[in-house]
From TrEMBL:
Residues 30-260 form the ABC transporter domain. The keyword Transcription does not apply. The keyword ATP-binding applies. Residues 1-19 have a biased composition (Polar residues). The lineage of its organism: Bacteria, Bacillati, Actinomycetota, Actinomycetes, Bifidobacteriales. This is ABC transporter ATP-binding protein. It comes from Bifidobacterium oedipodis. SUPFAM superfamilies: P-loop containing nucleoside triphosphate hydrolases (SSF52540).
Length: 346
């Protein structure tokens, strides 16, 4: 479990959530306008826009190949781009913008540590890229180790750590210099649920203590759990932006009803599909899954049709729309399906 020492909390120099300019407009941490990135004939970023407010957790949601990592690498000046403008804390970013880059931390999707170094030595090395004073760096390394809960492993080399502990080490290396802006690129890939929860709790704590977070993922539940605002992207384009509830309110779907039944026939299924509130109805031989428009009597009317057809009904459930439903309505493809079948462009 990521945990902090009360005597040595992580403290970022960033402004707290809700920081504004004089006109009450939220201060911008990252502003991207009309970003275009091409790889030959392939358009990886298609006039992409992004505005991250200082002090927020900003979720960047999209399947593999949607352009998330490409956008981040352009923001960090690790990739050149063809058109557009990028500013971080109001300043343009170039490969030599060291004053801005010192305020940024990056936790990459792939664990990027040195197998020959111990936990402490790894964190110290990455911290030394920003902090030259040895005494101050020692304090920061200790704080980072404490923050991610690796105190008993500080002399271990990465090869001796579990996958979840390696992810925590990866995070410590990215945050040891206490940046104001931190990019987390798929930090929970292939980790166990306990480590996943610890990572998400740690990210939320970093935010509470002053850091602006940009969190990229194709795991909808994670983004919905921690993000203040969410941008959905695909094919290098900005599709929709808002809080999780605002995004769900953008679509026509009101609920998804699932009913366990083994004896549904085609005639009754067609009657279900003809109901005016039904967007889609699918039966897999065991469960009827119905996507519905907003309405107060959807479940009652659906059960009336099934009862009239003599269909035996077992367990049933109704749930509000998810971010995957938002993505499905915006793109025609489920986010998880896109993730499984997309060609990687990042």
């Amino acid at each position: 479990m990521m945990s902090g020492n009360n005597n040595k909390p992580y403290t970022s120099g960033g402004q707290s959530m809700g920081s504004t300019r004089g006109d009450d407009t939220p201060a911008s941490a990252v502003a991207v306008h009309g970003l275009v990135k091409r790889y030959g004939d392939m358009l990886a970023l298609d006039y992409f826009d992004l505005d991250v407010h200082q002090g927020e957790i900003f979720g960047l949601l999209g399947p593999n190949g949607s352009g998330k990592s490409t956008a981040i690498n352009c923001i960090l000046a690790l990739l050149t781009y063809d058109e557009g403008e990028i500013r971080v804390f109001g300043k343009p970013v170039t490969p030599t913008s060291y004053d801005v880059k010192r305020r940024i931390g990056i936790v990459p999707q792939n664990v990027a540590v040195f197998n020959e170094l111990t936990v402490t030595e790894n964190i110290d090395y990455f911290c030394s890229l920003y902090i030259t004073d040895r005494k101050r760096r020692t304090e920061l390394v200790d704080q980072a180790i404490d923050f991610v809960g690796l105190g008993e492993f500080r002399k271990f080399r990465p090869g001796k750590l579990s996958g979840g502990l390696k992810r925590r080490l990866n995070i410590a290396c990215g945050i040891a210099h206490q940046p104001d802006l931190i990019f987390f690129d798929e930090p929970t890939v292939a980790v166990d649920p306990q480590s996943r929860n610890a990572i998400l709790e740690g990210i939320q704590r970093l935010n509470r203590e002053g850091a602006t977070i940009v969190y990229t993922s194709h795991y909808m539940e994670e983004v919905e759990q921690i993000a203040d605002r969410i941008l959905i992207m695909d094919h290098g384009r900005h599709l929709a932006l808002g809080t999780a509830e605002e995004l769900k309110g953008m679509i026509g779907m009101g609920e998804r009803i699932s009913i366990a039944t083994l004896d549904l026939d085609d005639k009754v299924l067609q009657r279900v599909r003809s109901l005016p509130f039904v967007i889609e109805a699918v039966w897999d031989g065991k469960e009827l899954d119905v996507r519905c428009r907003r309405g107060e009597r959807n479940l009652v009317d659906l059960l009336d049709v099934l009862n009239a057809g003599g269909i035996n009904v077992g367990h049933l459930s109704s749930r509000p729309p998810t971010l995957n439903d938002v993505f499905l309505e915006l793109t025609g493809t489920a986010l998880r399906d896109s993730t499984e079948h997309a060609e990687t462009r990042e």
